[in-house]
Specification:
The chain has 544 residues and is α+β, with helices and mostly antiparallel strands. It is 28% helix and 28% strand. It has 14 helices and 23 strands. The protein has helices at residues 17-28, 45-58, 67-100, 116-126, 132-144, 153-156, 160-165, 195-202, 218-223, 228-238, 260-276, 281-284, 315-321, 467-472, and strands spanning 102-109, 172-177, 181-187, 207-213, 243-249, 285-289, 334-342, 346-351, 357-358, 362-366, 370-379, 382-384, 386-387, 392-398, 410-413, 420-430, 439-440, 444-449, 452-465, 486-487, 492-504, 516-521, 524-533. A hairpin with a 2-residue loop joins strand 11 (370-379) and strand 12 (382-384). The longest helix is centred in the first third of the chain and has 34 residues, at 67-100.
C-alpha cells in the first residue's frame, strides 16, 4: 500500500500512556498526512495509536532508555516537522537567487543562413541546458536529411517545417544562466518573409547578437542592398536594442580558415554602416570571431593553436559584462501582451516594460478597460511571488476571458492606465520608399509598435525637419515651420498617423518601449519613428 510507509512512528517501549496520546495527536495534526482511500487495509490513525498505547502500558516496567534512543526520538521529531516548511524555504531561496542575478533578453539577428540558430543551440549545449543524448539524436536526424551541419540548429528550431527547410520561422525562445546573469535567447528568423516575426522578437530584447557569416559570398549577400543584415540592424536600433555584439561566424569554414584579413574586411565594412544606423560603435558595439558549429570562442577563450591573432574575450564574457539601462521597478505597470492561452484560467504572456507585477495585484487590461486580478506569476518555468521590469513572464488572470484579449493589449495599473488612442503624432525617418511612391497624406502602411500590428494611414504631414539646418541654426532665428505636401527618401517628418482600432501607446519621452515603431509595406521597412504626441487622457483622438 502507498500509505504503509507513512504509518505513525513507533512509540518507544518506555513511553507512558500520556506520551502515546501526545504522539498520536502529533501524527494526526501533520500537514502532509493523506487519508487512505476507502477500502484500504492500513489502520486508521486513531486505532493505530490506541493499539500502540496498549503495547506501551504492557511494556512500561522495562529498563530506562539509552542515550541512543533519545537521539533517534529527536531525529524523528525533526523529520516530522520538515515537510510543511520545505516549500516555503525553497520559494524564498528561489526568490533570493532571482533577485541576485540580473535578467537579460538577447535577440539573435542577421541574414538568413548566417548561423543564428546554430549559435543559439551551441550556447544552450555549452551551458548545460541540452544533454549529449539529445545532441546525438539531432545529429542522426540531420544526417538522415543529408544536412549534417544543421544538428545544432535543431535545438532552437523545433517544428518540422523549420527543420525541413533549414529556416527559422517563429521566434525561438530558450533560457540559460551564467555566473551573474539569467539570459533569455530570442532566435529571430532571418528570411525577409518573416521580418514581422523578427520585429516581435527584437521588441522584447535588451541586447542584440548580430550574426554575420564570414564564408565567401555569404557576408556580401547579407550586406548588399536588400540583404537582411542591413534591415535587421536598422530594426534592432529602432526597436530599442541599444547594445550590439557583432559575431563573425563560420570562421572555421575552408574559404576563411580563421583569416584575420577576412575578419578585418567585414569589421571595416560594418563599422560605418552601424554608425549610420545610430550606434555608437566605440561604446555600444563589440566585434568578435566565433565558430557556432564548433563552439570556438563562445564559452571559453580562443585556443591560440586555432587562431593566434585573437586576444579578446569570448562571447559569454562579453554577454556577462554588458551594461544595459536600468528600468524602474516602482514605475507604472506596463506589460504588452504577446500571446494568450487557456490553462485553468486565462494566461497572458509578455515582457514587463516597467513596474512590478505581484500575486494578488488588481490591474486593468487596456484598451478594453477590463479589471483583472493576478492569480499567479511565472518567470521561465518557475512560479514566483513577483516579477520586475525586463522579465518575460506568464501571468494567470481572473476576471477576463481568453477570447477578450488580443496581442497588443497592455496590462497596466488601475490608477495610471496606459492611454488607448486611434491617432497620434509621430516623428518619422523615411528609409526607402517603394519604386515610384511618394510619401504624402493618404499613404497607407502597416504599423508595428511593441506587440501591436495594425494597418495605418498618414492623414497629415505637419512639418519637415531639416537635420542640417537644425544643427547650424540659432534657436532665436528659428524659421516658421514648413508644412510639406510630400517627402522623399531620407527625409525626417512630423506627421499624424491614424489607425482604425484603438491601440495602447505612450510618448517616446515617457516610455520608449511603448513609443517607438516601424512602418512596413509590401514586405519592406519603409520608415522608423517615435511617438511625439498623443491625444489628451481619456480621449482617443485630438480635439479640433
Amino acid at each position: 500500500m502507498e500509505h504503509d510507509g507513512e504509518m505513525a512512528p513507533p512509540i518507544p517501549s518506555h513511553a507512558t500512556p500520556a506520551d502515546a496520546d501526545a504522539a498520536a495527536d502529533d501524527w494526526a495534526t501533520r500537514d502532509d498526512f493523506e487519508e487512505s482511500p476507502a477500502g484500504s487495509q492500513s489502520h486508521p490513525p486513531a486505532a493505530a495509536a490506541a493499539a500502540a498505547a496498549e503495547e506501551a502500558q504492557e511494556a512500561a516496567p522495562l529498563a530506562p532508555p539509552s542515550e541512543d534512543i533519545k537521539e533517534i526520538e529527536s531525529t524523528l521529531q525533526s523529520l516530522e516537522l520538515q515537510p510543511s516548511d520545505v516549500p516555503h524555504d525553497s520559494l524564498q531561496t528561489e526568490a533570493e537567487e532571482r533577485n541576485r542575478k540580473r535578467h537579460l533578453n538577447v535577440v539573435f539577428i542577421g541574414h538568413v543562413d548566417a548561423g543564428k540558430s546554430t549559435a543559439g543551440g551551441q550556447i544552450l549545449f555549452l551551458s548545460g541546458q541540452v544533454d549529449d543524448r539529445t545532441i546525438q539524436k539531432y545529429e542522426k536526424e540531420a544526417k538522415d536529411k543529408s544536412r549534417e551541419s544543421w544538428y545544432m540548429a535543431y535545438i532552437m528550431d523545433t517544428n518540422e517545417e523549420e527543420r525541413a527547410k533549414g529556416k527559422t520561422v517563429e521566434v525561438g525562445r530558450a533560457h540559460f544562466e551564467t555566473e551573474t546573469t539569467r539570459f533569455t535567447i530570442l532566435d529571430a528568423p532571418g528570411h525577409k518573409s518573416y521580418v514581422p516575426n523578427m520585429i516581435s522578437g527584437a521588441s522584447q530584447a535588451d541586447i542584440g547578437v548580430l550574426v554575420i557569416s564570414a564564408r565567401k559570398g555569404e557576408f556580401e549577400t547579407g550586406y548588399e542592398r536588400g540583404g537582411q543584415t542591413r534591415e535587421h540592424v536598422l530594426l534592432a536600433k529602432t526597436l530599442g536594442v541599444s547594445k550590439l555584439i557583432v559575431v563573425i561566424n563560420k570562421m572555421d569554414d575552408p574559404t576563411v580558415g580563421w583569416s584575420k584579413e577576412r575578419y578585418d574586411e567585414i569589421e571595416g565594412k560594418m563599422t560605418p554602416f552601424l554608425k549610420s544606423s545610430g550606434y555608437n560603435v566605440k561604446k555600444d558595439v563589440q566585434f568578435l570571431p566565433i565558430s557556432g558549429l564548433l563552439g570556438a570562442n563562445m564559452k571559453t577563450r580562443m585556443d591560440k593553436s586555432t587562431c593566434g591573432w585573437w586576444n579578446g574575450p569570448c562571447l559569454f564574457e562579453i554577454m556577462d559584462c554588458i551594461e544595459v539601462p536600468l528600468r524602474d521597478p516602482k514605475g507604472p505597470v506596463r506589460m504588452p501582451i504577446m500571446d494568450k492561452y487557456k490553462d485553468m484560467g486565462t494566461v497572458v504572456m509578455g515582457k514587463i516594460e516597467s513596474g512590478t507585477i505581484s500575486e494578488g495585484d488588481n490591474l486593468v487590461v487596456m484598451p478594453n478597460k477590463a479589471n483583472v486580478k493576478v492569480i499567479s506569476v511565472y518567470c521561465d518555468e518557475d512560479k514566483v511571488r513577483s516579477a520586475a521590469p525586463g522579465e518575460n513572464v506568464r501571468v494567470k488572470l481572473s476576471g477576463i476571458e481568453e477570447e477578450d484579449i488580443a496581442a497588443g493589449f497592455v496590462l497596466s495599473n488601475v490608477g495610471n492606465p496606459v492611454g488607448a488612442v486611434s491617432e497620434f503624432n509621430a516623428q518619422l525617418q523615411i528609409l526607402e520608399l517603394l519604386d515610384n511612391a511618394i510619401f504624402t497624406a493618404g499613404y497607407k502602411a502597416v504599423l508595428h509598435i511593441h506587440s501591436v500590428v495594425e494597418e495605418c494611414e498618414i492623414v497629415d504631414l505637419i512639418e519637415e525637419i531639416d537635420l542640417k539646418r537644425k544643427k547650424e541654426s540659432d534657436p532665436k532665428k528659428k524659421k516658421p515651420k514648413r508644412k510639406p505636401l510630400f517627402v522623399k527618401n531620407g527625409a525626417v517628418v512630423v506627421c499624424r498617423v491614424q489607425v482604425s482600432n484603438l491601440i495602447c501607446i505612450e510618448n517616446f519621452s515617457d516610455s520608449p518601449q511603448l513609443g517607438r515603431f516601424t512602418l512596413r509595406t509590401e514586405g519592406k521597412t519603409i520608415a522608423v519613428g517615435k511617438v511625439v504626441a498623443v491625444p489628451p487622457a481619456g480621449s482617443a483622438i485630438f480635439k479640433a
